[in-house]
Amino acid sequence: MVADRRTASLRVRLTATAVVVLGCGLLAGCVVLLVVLQHVLVAAVDSGARQRARDVAELVVEDRLPDPVPVADTSASVQVLDGEGHVLASSVGGDRLVPLVPPSQLPRLRGGEVVRIDAVRLGSTGSLRVVGRASDTLDGRRTVVVAVPSAGSGSVRTVGLAFVLAVPLLLLAVGGMSWRLVGSAMRPVEQLRAGAADITATRTARRLPVPESADELRRLAETLNAMLDRLATSEARTRAFVADAAHELRSPLATLRLHVELGAPDDAVSREDLIDDVDRLARLVDDLLLLARADAGATTGRREDADLSQLAETVVARQAWRVPVRVDATPTHVTADADAVARALGNVLDNAVRHASTAVVLEVTQDGGMAVLRVTDDGPGIPLAQRERVLERFVRLDSARARDAGGSGLGLAIVTEIVRAHGGGIRLDDAAPGLRVTLSLPVSGEAPRPA
């Protein structure tokens, strides 16, 4: 049974749940209704019997009681008993000799209780409900006894039979309606499932069908399509990344293989070329590893307080640049991974020096809650339409396509990843002439801005 419930479709489970819940509710409602109906009918019978007893009791007190005792309902039986329980008067068809109840029950009747007796006493079937009313006369205490058939059993049985016939029909109708409604509601879900299966199996369709109704399923389909778009973009980016990485690694690996096949060269220049290729290959591998960590969300390491002015001086002093690099820095503190920020600044300086004509200027300032590193060169600059593109991976402009003159196209992409990981940003502007690259980082104590 458990396995059947687990393997049943959602449509079956929802329909069954609706029918079971409604059936339980109807069953409880029917039971309550029958109980209430029985109680109301019995209360009505008792109220009518007591009213007859009061009417007869008034006749007894006024000494106007006829014999036989008149009753409007022939199904009721009335007796007037003396203090010892003897029958003084009776209604038509009633027993004029034997009282309906024994004398021991009279105190209960006078106290307002209802006594049940067998209807065989009056030659009928079932049971009778007996009520009483005491009256004091000059001749002593009299007790009016009224017996009426127990009402309601027939009516209750009729209503119960109607429920037995109507409830299954109602449940069948509700089950059919629920089956159709759930099927209609689940149709868009099935379309989404079929669309997802088509994407998985054929990889031809890249979007799921969107239902026409403006409900939760439509929002789900739109969210899933947005996710598919992001996945497609990520997949395309990954394929391009792998292809570009393979292309970049091919050239130095081919050179190394050539040197290995020819044997270790004796010429110093060749050895220097070989070392340059190894260094270039090592830098490229390091860049690829850093970008891989960036994709995994681990671009930076431990963050500590760092002075960007001292960091800039250290980066500039690490090597001899092709053109002079002037540093104009004011003490500015940030909470960052100093090694990662130094690498980002070094990449920007490498790019600036590679394209500068005469000089490069490095400025470190603070603008509000942001620390600003500004690198300006006097080279040819970058066209406005290309400035966003050069921040992508493996992108080199035509002027920097040569492997010996240009880089691998990862420098500014790495800078972008590092800066954004610190909650900062990067901007490229025209320096007229040249290019100005601005890096911004939150100063110490400031909350990082969204990347």
Give a topology summary.
Layout: H1 2-7, H2 10-61, E1 77-81, E2 87-90, H3 106-110, E3 115-118, E4 127-137, E5 140-149, H4 153-202, H5 216-262, H6 268-295, E6 304-307, H7 308-317, E7 325-329, E8 333-336, H8 338-355, E9 360-367, E10 370-377, H9 411-421, E11 425-430, E12 435-442
Parallel strand pairs: 7-9
Antiparallel strand pairs: 1-2, 1-5, 3-4, 4-5, 6-8, 9-10, 10-12, 11-12
Helix pairs in contact: 2-4, 5-6, 6-9, 7-8, 8-9
How would you describe this protein?
The chain is α+β, with helices and mostly antiparallel strands. Helix content is 50%, strand content 17%. The protein has a five-stranded antiparallel beta sheet. The protein has a five-stranded mixed beta sheet with strand order 7-9-10-12-11. Strands 6-8 form a two-stranded antiparallel ribbon. Residues 399-406 have low confidence and may be disordered.
Short overview:
By secondary structure, this protein is α+β, with helices and mostly antiparallel strands. It has helices spanning 2-7, 10-61, 106-110, 153-202, 216-262, 268-295, 308-317, 338-355, 411-421, and strands spanning 77-81, 87-90, 115-118, 127-137, 140-149, 304-307, 325-329, 333-336, 360-367, 370-377, 425-430, 435-442.
